[in-house]
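Hi V.,

You were right to ask for the full record rather than a summary. Here it is.
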Amino acid sequence: MTDSDKRPLAVFDLDNTLADTGHRQRFLERRPRDWDAFFAAAPEDPPLPEGIALVLASAEECEIVYLTGRPERCRRDTLAWLAAQGLPEGRVHMRRNDDRRPARRTKLEILKRLGRTREIRVLVDDDELVCADAEQAGFAVVRARWTAPSTELKVAQEREGRT
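Predicted structure:
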């Protein structure tokens, strides 16, 4: 086991935790929702200073892991965005392209799997349902409340299993 394998994990969500999705919310307000356009616009997300600062501070003691509801098809753009923000490299867990389960189920499943072999110091996420379920399962949580909540994104995360 290397030293990095012994470090606790700090797990970060992306959308509305590290990346400001406000400029692409309009694609979710349409009927039908334009998911392709929503995700295609992700590389233009401005970084959220509070989230970025928390990742950088956490990286001093923890290995960083990114846990997002974004579909796997967004991996290349997501990795490029993380690098462009100067964020630490880390494993990026994404939703399978065909997975439409609620974010709280998919994310908790991954957290539990990670927690079997490593200490999870903290989960940082903006989704209240994800945070509540993670706390109930015994994980320490920081709620990312530094962006305005989006009703459309919340519906997408919970009911449509899209992000």
